[in-house]
Automatic annotation (TrEMBL), chain A:
The chain crosses the membrane at residues 41-61, 102-124, 136-155, 161-180, 256-278. This is Sulfonate transport system permease protein. Residues 15-35 are annotated as: Disordered. Keywords: Cell membrane, Membrane, Transmembrane, Transmembrane helix, Transport. Its main location: membrane. Residues 91-275 form the ABC transmembrane type-1 domain. Gene3D superfamilies: MetI-like. Belongs to the binding-protein-dependent transport system permease family.
Automatic annotation (TrEMBL), chain B:
It comes from Xanthobacter agilis. Belongs to the ABC transporter superfamily. Residues 20-251 form the ABC transporter domain. This is ABC-type nitrate/sulfonate/bicarbonate transport system ATPase subunit. Keywords: ATP-binding, Nucleotide-binding, Transport. Transmembrane segments: none annotated. It holds the Pfam family ABC_tran.
Length: 293, 271
């Protein structure tokens, strides 16, 4: 998923920190900065530099009148519109409605995805049963199902939950199943030598080993949920950020469209950061790795 | 700690029942539809408390033999008996140190050692005590709360040794346990391993391709020839050789083993 992957950059940093003592000793010799990459602050600044440059270019283009105001409104216009949208509370309402839809849809998708992904990862029979349809469905955009789903579910909230949950569930199923399947055979063998029962094996070998892949699936699912939200709201809604976009497009008020895009991007980013925080909390062995000798 | 302090002599009484008895074991794998024999007619008996080193070139089936003793693979010809009972699967009286430390990255050092005691029948306090004792034995009591990623290779392997010993196994299997370490760490850990195994009184089977290590640690050395793995010779290690790496007995035995392994000593000395 492009969004999830682009935002993945700092994970680099983290895996380097989780390296062996030898690696950290080597980094120590190479100085604080080391050859691994920029410092945490540096990578944040680096990440902000491109959007900032774009903003400056945009501002200049508007100031010099390079692009007609109707097509690309000036940053100042955007700011004014944003202020009034915040002032009359409509932006908050749209954001709340959309966030609620994403959370419910993603929650359903995550629940479904984790359960079926785990079943597929643990049981070859379930995998053989589940994988062909999931793989096939994964190739048909969920929007293509919308006309059909509308006939069954109507056009109200449940439709949006199902469509968002559906798009989120697919990477979560695949990530969870893959994570469990790929648990190291060497560790499974160790479990046999140490007389682990099924519960020990799940708790001490399978689950912790699958955590990174499960979270990769969850984050991709979350990115899918936001993308599908916008499309679902374009299709059938009278509230929400996707609706704000449609409305702005119909009124030829592109400032509304741009604001909705920015808010969607920031909300998605914020929730992704939240998931990454949970992921770090779930893997204390990767956190705070420092030399203890 | 009141662990039995064994100081087994290489000349154990002939009447002793062998603790580990391997009888005519052969093992073949099927590769591309063809059976490839990896072990051919291996017979070996090891008396309780003794340390046997198995040396051989890579691919002579050394590790396979350990997997069979461990009970991870039951598909072979011949018989393996522990105290007169056939091996039917992994059991708590046997443990292994692998070439890689194979510590679970998500458990702390004490968590990894404690994982060996989950089904030991000990209560939580006794398990904690055993973990602490064994970490002390390998000199890592200060690192109990560290994660494996924070340890050096030598330290991680010491944790793996502590884990293998935590349940007080009667049989300790060592699959090139020091093979992945640098030369200095390896020498130091060889000394530690000898002390620890003697202290615990376990019967040990070490698989290695390091001849010095085999001579230094073993009461007996089993030399394997490869493809298929078969016993070329079984040599007793004189106490003098085990005690001192520069003794004439050590050097003589090492040269004898190298010769059996087909290493031409003349060339080695000329370089």
């Amino acid at each position: 998923m492009s969004l999830a992957e682009t935002l993945d950059k700092p994970a680099f940093d983290q895996s380097a920190r989780a390296g062996t003592a030898t690696a950290s000793a080597a980094r120590r010799r190479a100085g604080r900065r080391g050859p691994a990459g920029p410092t945490p602050l540096g990578s944040v600044l680096l990440g902000l530099s491109f959007p900032f440059a774009l903003l400056v270019a945009w501002w200049w283009a508007a100031r010099l009148g390079l692009v007609p105001e109707q097509i690309l409104p000036a940053p100042a216009t955007i700011y004014e519109t944003l202020s009034s949208l915040i002032a009359d509370g409509s932006l908050t309402t749209h954001l709340e409605v959309s966030t609620h839809r994403v959370l419910v849809g993603f929650g359903l998708g995550a629940l479904f995805g984790l359960v079926f992904g785990a079943a597929a990862g643990l049981s070859p029979t379930v995998r053989a049963f589940l994988y062909p349809p999931v793989q096939a469905v994964a190739r048909v955009n969920v929007l293509a199902w919308m006309p059909l789903l509308t006939l069954f579910m109507g056009i109200d909230e449940p439709l949006k939950y199902v469509v968002i949950g559906w798009s989120a569930a697919i990477p979560i199923i695949l990530g969870t199943a893959r994570g469990i399947e790929n648990v190291s055979p060497a560790f499974r063998e160790l479990g046999r030598v140490l007389h682990f029962n099924t519960r020990d094996t799940l708790r001490l070998v399978v689950l912790p080993g699958a955590v990174p892949s499960i979270f990769a699936g969850l984050r991709e699912g979350l990115a899918n949920a936001w993308q599908t939200l916008v499309l679902a709201e374009l299709f059938a809604s009278f509230e929400g950020l996707g609706y704000l976009m449609t409305w702005g497009r119909q009124l030829f008020q592109l400032d509304l469209v741009i604001i909705a895009m920015i808010v969607v991007a920031l909300a998605g980013l914020a929730m992704d950061l939240g998931l990454r925080w949970v992921e770090r909390r779930a893997q204390p062995w990767k956190r705070g790795t420092r030399d203890v000798h | 700690m009141n662990a039995p302090f064994h100081s087994p002599s290489p000349q154990a009484p002939a009447t002793a029942v062998p603790a580990l008895d391997i009888r005519h074991v052969s093992k073949a794998f099927v590769v591309d539809g063809k059976a490839v024999e990896v072990l051919a007619d291996i017979s070996l008996s090891v008396e309780a408390g003794s340390f046997v080193s198995i040396v051989g070139a890579s691919g002579c089936g050394k590790s396979t033999l350990l997997r069979l003793i461990l009970g991870l693979d039951l598909d072979y010809a011949g018989e393996i008996h522990l105290d007169g009972r056939p091996v039917e699967g992994p059991g708590p009286e046997r443990s292994i140190v692998f070439q890689e430390h194979r510590l679970l990255p998500w458990l702390t050092v004490e968590g990894n050692v404690g994982a060996a005691l989950l089904h030991s029948g000990l209560d939580a306090a006794a398990r904690r005590r055993s973990v602490a004792e064994h970490l002390e034995l390998v000199g890592l009591e200060a690192f109990a709360k560290a994660y494996p990623a924070q340890l050096s290779g030598g330290m991680a392997q010491r944790v793996a040794i502590a884990r293998a010993l935590a349940n007080r196994p009667r049989f300790l299997l060592l699959d090139e346990p020091l093979g992945a370490l640098d030369a200095l760490t390896r020498l130091r850990l060889q000394g530690e391993l000898k002390r620890i195994v003697a202290y615990e009184g376990a019967t040990a089977v070490l698989v290695t391709h390091d001849v010095d290590e085999a001579v230094f640690l073993g009461h007996r050395i089993v030399v394997l020839h490869p493809r298929p793995g078969r016993i070329a010779a079984v040599l007793e290690v004189p106490e003098e050789a085990r005690a001192d790496r520069s003794s004439p007995a050590f050097v003589a035995l090492r040269d004898r083993v190298l010769e059996l392994l087909g290493v031409s000593l003349g060339e080695g000395r000329a370089r």
